[in-house]
């Protein structure tokens, strides 16, 4: 291998190493903006109302960013690419009711939990209300969520259908293409309350989990700054106000 080739490879390696570095909190502050990826089809956490991005996750992130001294630049994408983009440095953080799991924690670094919740069963049949009653049933779930592996672990489920958005899963349930839909309890509550004529019933939990924003793996500079600001938002009453606005309760992990 001649010296020119070696030099070219070295340059390419250096470029790749630079690209591979996530932005530190100092770099984020210097730019004045925190680039955050989310989806906008998951009420009451991230959704669009009258053309405006809103929700608990959205308002909380903006409150935390304000404490950090920066503004949020939002990137709206499908849920299943949010964590992938962190590894590619396409954005600084991802937030959208992301459940903390051991598998995900190997790929990204989670900030401190924003809230605790869990996945519940929703069905038009009041008898489909627990894990045991999912036997021989067709279940709808959003692609990329933590609910899918938990549903796969339930014995004798007839079929699990993946949908890009919760709204698609709800449509399948209303149309009778599935027997049940599994989603976050607050999202389920919002959906059921928004269409009382549909006759949807909320059943029991499939799992309980902690949810948090995420940064690129080992970007502790940004994660620690976010955690500090989040603690301040929780301490000064801002968190409680935002939480009760969207869920009618304080949903922080006890």
Concise description?
The protein has 254 residues and is of the alpha/beta class.
Topology:
Elements: H1 3-19, H2 25-31, E1 33-38, E2 41-42, E3 46-49, E4 52-54, H3 56-68, E5 71-76, H4 82-87, E6 93-94, H5 102-107, E7 108-110, E8 115-123, E9 138-142, H6 147-152, E10 159-163, H7 166-174, E11 180-184, H8 185-194, E12 201-211, E13 214-216, H9 220-235, H10 238-247
Parallel strand pairs: 1-5, 1-6, 9-10, 9-11
Antiparallel strand pairs: 2-3, 3-4, 6-13, 7-13, 8-11, 8-12
Helix pairs in contact: 3-9, 3-10
Domain Solute-binding protein family 3/N-terminal: 33-250
Protein name: Amino acid ABC transporter substrate-binding protein
Signal peptide: 1-22
Question: How does this model look, in words?
Answer:
The protein is globular, with a radius of gyration of 20 Å. It has 2 domains: 7-114 and 212-247, Periplasmic binding protein-like II (D-Maltodextrin-Binding Protein, domain 2), CATH 3.40.190.10; 117-209, D-Maltodextrin-Binding Protein, domain 2 (3-Layer(aba) Sandwich). A hairpin with a 2-residue loop joins strand 3 (46-49) and strand 4. It has 254 residues and is of the alpha/beta class. The protein has helices at 3-19, 25-31, 56-68, 82-87, 102-107, 147-152, 166-174, 185-194, 220-235, 238-247; strands at 33-38, 41-42, 46-49, 52-54, 71-76, 93-94, 108-110, 115-123, 138-142, 159-163, 180-184, 201-211, 214-216.
């Amino acid at each position: 291998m001649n010296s020119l080739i070696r030099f070219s490879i070295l340059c390419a390696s250096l470029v790749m190493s630079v690209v591979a570095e996530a932005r530190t909190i100092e770099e984020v502050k210097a730019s004045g903006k925190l680039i955050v990826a989310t989806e906008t089809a998951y009420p009451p956490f991230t959704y669009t109302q009258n053309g405006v991005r809103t929700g608990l996750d959205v308002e909380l992130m903006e409150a935390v960013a304000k404490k950090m001294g920066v503004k949020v630049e939002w990137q709206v994408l499908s849920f299943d690419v949010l964590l992938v983009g962190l590894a590619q440095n396409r954005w600084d953080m991802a937030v959208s009711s992301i459940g903390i799991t051991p598998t995900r924690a190997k790929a990204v670094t989670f900030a401190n939990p924003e809230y605790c919740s869990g996945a519940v069963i929703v069905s038009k049949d009041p008898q489909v209300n627990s894990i045991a009653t999912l036997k021989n049933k067709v279940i709808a779930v959003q692609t990329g969520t933590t609910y899918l592996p938990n549903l796969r672990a339930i014995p004798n489920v007839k079929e699990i259908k993946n949908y890009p958005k919760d709204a698609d899963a709800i449509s399948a349930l209303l149309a009778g293409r599935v027997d049940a839909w599994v989603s976050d309890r607050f999202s389920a509550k919002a959906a059921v309350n928004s269409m009382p004529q549909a006759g949807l019933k909320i059943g029991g939990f499939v799992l309980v989990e902690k949810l948090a924003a995420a940064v690129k793996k080992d970007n502790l500079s940004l994660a620690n700054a976010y955690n500090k600001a989040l603690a301040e938002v929780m301490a000064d009453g801002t968190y409680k106000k935002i939480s009760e606005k969207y869920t009618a309760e304080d949903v922080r992990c006890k």
